[in-house]
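JOB MANIFEST
job_type = single_chain_structure
chain_count = 1
residues = 390
[input]
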Amino acid sequence: MTQSESAAPSQPTSPNGKPSLEDVNRYRENLQGEIDAIALYRRLGELEDAPALQHFYTRMADVEEVHAGVWRQRLADAGVDTSGMRVGWRNRILMGIARYFGPGIVVPTIADREASDEAMYDDQSEALARMPGDERSHARLFRELAGGRGVEGGAIARIEGRHRAGGGNQLRAAVLGANDGLVSNLSITMGVAGASSGGHAVLIAGLAGLLAGALSMAIGEWLSVQSARELFAHQVRVEREELLAVPDEEEEELALIYQAKGLDPDQARQMAKALVGGEIGRAVDTLAREELGIDPNELGGSAWVAAVTSFTLFALGALVPLLPFIIGSGTPAVVVAIVISAVALYLVGGAITIVTGSSVLRTGGRQVLLGLIAAAVTYGLGALVGRAVG
């Protein structure tokens, strides 16, 4: 037992010094989840043929046993008998499915469940210091296993594929940012055009919409990225503190990650031991990348770059329907704005298919249809309001 395990935080109590009914129910719920996980992981380990996966599931179950012991002790201190608690029916069904169809078929379900529960101990002061990190690590490990039966090779492809997918996500974000600017400002200009017959008010409203939308997108992106950077920096600091406080636990987690990448248990333990026992900066860097999926040097990228990029992309899209009103006005400018906006919408739809792989004709046509519907609705409303005010 580590020092962090032997010195659990004090439990919240009711005024009479005992855990409240709410606390007891929470302890029971936590324990039930751990009992279910232990039984499931041990069963999957028994059903697995690959030694690496057998060891992986066994170690996962051992970690959950430590967690379960915490809640058993809490309930015992509260005078609650837990000897009658058994595996829940949902987990019994999962174990039955795994028995007849193989363990791999239930891994995606486990991955989803671990992902939804990875923050369950973050706000529970009674949990051991290591328990929130354990849950996040488990969620990440099962994400790597999800969709495949084994860990040898398959997880490596998924890990490297995640980095390649980042480019696709950035491309999709860029295209959709321009699309937001195009559709929103086309709607604004058509709404004002409907109310003012395409006069100079359209240009003023469109420029205001461009600036307001681009600033809103930039500020939102800056806040999002900056918040993520601060969270990542905090997680890296926590990882450093855990490495200094409980190096054995971090070494075990790192060994499990390497096993999930296809190494045999001995190789995984040797690599983990060498890293944790080496230079602290390198160990923290490796743990942050492997356990948390964070690049300590990047921390999710620059908030300012994200803000400027978001502003620029939105503004470029929003500028398209305004171009005719810069040099003209009236019905001709409205018609030209609709035509060039339809072309731009089709190009945006085609760009999206670079990421999705779907039909350019279908996606581009759908983009044009939806954009023009939005423009028609706002034009009609503008015309109604213009007549009512007149």
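[summary]
Residues 321 and 339 are 9 Å apart (CA to CA).
The mean pLDDT is 78.
exit_status = 0
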